[in-house]
Every structure is written in structure tokens, then in C-alpha cells.
Amino acid sequence: MTATKKTVRKPKTVEAEAHVADTANKTIETAREYAHRAAEAVLDRATSLHAGAEKATASIETAAVDSVESLAKASREIQNAMFDDAKAAIAAFEKTVAAKSVGDAFRIQADYYRAQFDVNVSRAKTVGALVAQAAQDGVKRAQDNFAGLAAKFGKAA
After folding, report:
1. Contact, 156 vs 52, CB < 8 A?
2. Among 11, 74, 117, 155, which residue's CB has the most CB atoms within a 10 Å radius?
3. DSSP letters for 28-94
4. Measured distance CA(85)–CA(97) in Å, rounded
5. Considering its fold, how many domains does the chain have in total?
6. Is residue 2 part of a domain?
7. pTM of the entire structure?
């Protein structure tokens, strides 16, 4: 018969293997904890960036709504001005037709053109002031938005 050789482990080898296994488990647990903390940090950063993007979108939306409101207001003012001009022209035409002499007709027309000139100068000043105010508001809003974004992204970086 052949003799079978039995390998008997020495206690030191078993202890060493147990130590290696314990060290490997601790390393794996430490890696898991690190990965968990890193995932939480990434989620916090993503949440912060998302909130900043939402705020920027809301600011853009507000600016767009304000622009549309300004355009609608300007459109209404133009429509009213055109209507007022038409009424003034018709009134001047009726007065001219009713004039007793050519001299009266010329005077009526001159008065009409003078009045319309004054009205148009006043309108131009008003439009200039509205455009300047809208530009100032837009620039201020843009500066505020960029400052907010710079602070947000500067903090995130």
C-alpha cells in the first residue's frame, strides 16, 4: 500500500491566513466607506449645481417675461399713437374742408403740422426714456445673475 501523506497545518500558518483575511476585509470595508462618502459628496455637488441651474433658469424666465411685457406695452403705445394720429388727421381734414378761405385752410394745416411735430417730439423723448430704462434694468438684471452664478460656481469649484 502506498502511504498517504497528510499535511497538517501549523497553527502559525492558520493565524497568518486569518490575519490576512481580516486585513483584506478591513481594506474592503474602508474602500466601501470611502466610495460611499465620495458618492454622497458627488450627490451634494450635483444637487447644488442643479439648484443653481434652476435659479438661473428662473432668472432667464423672469427676464424673458419682462421683455415680452415691455414689448406688449410698447406695441399698445404705438397702436394708441397711430389711432390718435388718425383722429387728429381726420379732425384737421374736416377743419380744412370747412375753411372759408385758402388762407384759413393753410393756417389750419400749419397748426395741425405744428401740433403733430410737438406730439412726435414728446413721443420720441418718452420712447427714449423707456428704452434707456429697459436697457438699464436688463443690464442690472444680467449683472446680478452673473454675480450669483459666479458666486455659485466659485463655491462649487
Report:
1. yes
2. 74
3. HHHHHHHHHHHHHHHHHHHHHHHHHHHHHHHHHHHHHHHHHHHHHHHHHHHHHHHHHHHHHHHHHHH
4. 18
5. 1
6. no
7. 0.56
